[in-house]
Amino acid sequence: MPSRRFGSSGAGFQCSVYSFQPGINRVYFVLVELTKDRTLKTENFPTMKITKDHAVSFDYEVRNSRAELLDSSAQSGNPMAYVHGYSSIVPGLEKALEGKTAGEQLDVVVPPVEAYGLRDERRMGKVERSIFPEGAEIKPGMRFRASTEQGSDNVVVVAVDGDIITVDANHPLAGETLTFKITVRDVRPATPEEISHGHVHHAHSHEEDDCCGGHGGGGCGCH
Predict the structure, then answer these.
(1) Which has the minimum average pLDDT: 12-16, 65-69, 124-128, 190-194?
(2) Is residue 104 domain-shared with residue 189, that is, in the same domain?
(3) pLDDT (tens digit, 9 = 90+) per residue, 95-147?
(4) Is 174 among the domain residues?
(5) Which among 13, 74, 146, 219 is least surrounded, fewest beta carbons within 10 Å?
(6) Which domain holds residue 23?
(7) pTM
(8) How many structural domains is the chain composed of?
(9) CA distances (Å), origin 207, targets 44, 105, 145, 203
């Protein structure tokens, strides 16, 4: 890649070193100073850290307390992307990412109280089959969106006994200690629109599917 020199003869600056880290969507520029005696002096530009109002993307794996793989960016085919500082991912993971930079790798163990909370047996109950769509075949493991006086909630069918259906409104990962394996891919300032909308534009964000760590509905890692 060609370099470009700035300054007059003798001393000047030449931006000539570009390095790419495999798997990391970030370019590092190194400023090379040509001193009067023609020796080289190099200095890396400051590395951007994860703080509030920054758009972040990272590769991840997440496992439960039994070391079972629940979700990964390799499975989804895309890294996770979010705007930091707005509770877009589980609190324990967001806290651990604070201050990290592109290229850093970390293992994060998140207890239930900083993930999806403890199980609450009061959120289980029995309902009549008649409240479900007519003709629907109800089986354990099926998920539905239920409306209550407190608003809407996701419920999972845990048992079927004739016309009596037992449902659980706890998050599927409630009570679980989660272990995340993270590689930070990119950190940049979020745009005003991204901050306003609460998600990263033109990227695979937590709202697009059931990526672990998000706050959407349904799958592994999502509220």
Answers:
(1) 12-16
(2) yes
(3) 999 999 999 999 999 999 999 999 999 999 999 998 888 888 899 999 988 87
(4) no
(5) 74
(6) 4-44
(7) 0.68
(8) 3
(9) 35, 24, 17, 10
